[in-house]
Every structure is written in C-alpha cells, then in structure tokens.
Amino acid sequence: TALPQPDEMMAVLRAMYPTPQRAAVDLVLDSTWLPLLLVDTGGVLWSRPQVEALLRHRLSLLYDNGAAKVSTWNLRVEHRAGDRYALGAGLAEDVRQSLSNAAREVGLRGAVLTPAFHWGLQRLRPNRGWPGRTGWFVWLEQDRAIVSRCYRGRLTGFNAGAPRCEDADDVERLIQTESCR
To answer: Looking at the DSSP assignment, which residues form a beta bridge with residue 87?
Structure first.
C-alpha cells in the first residue's frame, strides 16, 4: 500500500478541520501506516531499551527497504517489566513529519498519533466485562482484521494481518482459527 503523500494528508485534514481547533486532536491511524506487532520478550526483557531493540529488529525484518529504515522510526511500546509480551507500533519518520506538518498547517494543536487498534481497545475496554478479564478482541480495518487474545487483562496473542470479516459468522471462524494457533 502506498503511503500518503503530504499534499494528500493536507487535503484530508483541511476537509475535516476547515477552522483551527482549540482542543487537542487524536489522529487515529490504521496499521497500514502505523504497523503493530506483539513481541514475545520471554519475560526476561525488563528495560524499555531492550524491548524497543527487539521491536525495532522485528519491524526491520518486515519493513526495512532501501528508502526507509526502521532504525529511524518512532516507536510506541506498551510493556510492563516482567511481562512476557509487549505491544509495539512503528511510525516511519517521513509519515510522522508529514502528518505533523499537515496538522500544524491546518491549526491542529497537540495532535497525538495513535494506532487505531490501540485507540479502539482503550476506548471500548472490552476486557472489563469478560469473566477473568479473558477473551478475544477483533478490530476491523479497511483491508484486514486485527485479532487479539487477552488473558487476565494482558495481550497474549495477536494477529495483525487476519482476513477482513464481513459478519458475525466470519468473526467466530476467525477466532476459532486463531485459538488453534
């Protein structure tokens, strides 16, 4: 998928915000622009630099190319010392800069870039209603589904490239498949 160009982002933000905003704005990006990974730390990586290095390595295996190196990406990591898994997201520097410039140009102050999956999980907080805070969360994006497994409120399984679901039966089949993995 081609990344958005600065002029395209500017046009979208201008259409969404024709007048400057006083309140802070969250820019919610899907995983095409802000890739997500759940990395297994083995429960032995405790420091943020260690977890970031592992995440950067895994992202580089998937996304490094001649034009953009993952080593320059901005990372977002959710991990507590001793946790087995860390959820991470990486944002290419040129995309971040383009979005920042576009937000500034249209008068958005304090714009925060957030992965759509993370935004949905935080907003909906589905595990609060699950017995033992354990269950499945499926987030639909334009071209894919992101399937995650929570156990006692912590992510323990994750597929950021599952097929898109069209109905409840598709979601059920997807969860059955992921539970076998």
So the answer is: 38, 78
DSSP string, 42-103: TTT--SHHHHHHHHHHHHHHHH--SS--GGG-EEEEE--TT-SEEEEEEE-HHHHHHHHHHH
- Give φ, ψ of 10 to 5 degrees: -60, -45
> What's the pLDDT at 24?
78
Q: What is the pLDDT of residue 3?
A: 57
CA 110 → CA 84, 103, 106, distances in Å?
33, 9, 12
pLDDT, position 4: 59
Q: How many CB atoms lie within 10 A of CB 168?
A: 8
| Non-local CB neighbours of 141 within 8 Å, separated by 6+ positions | 30, 31, 32, 116, 117, 164
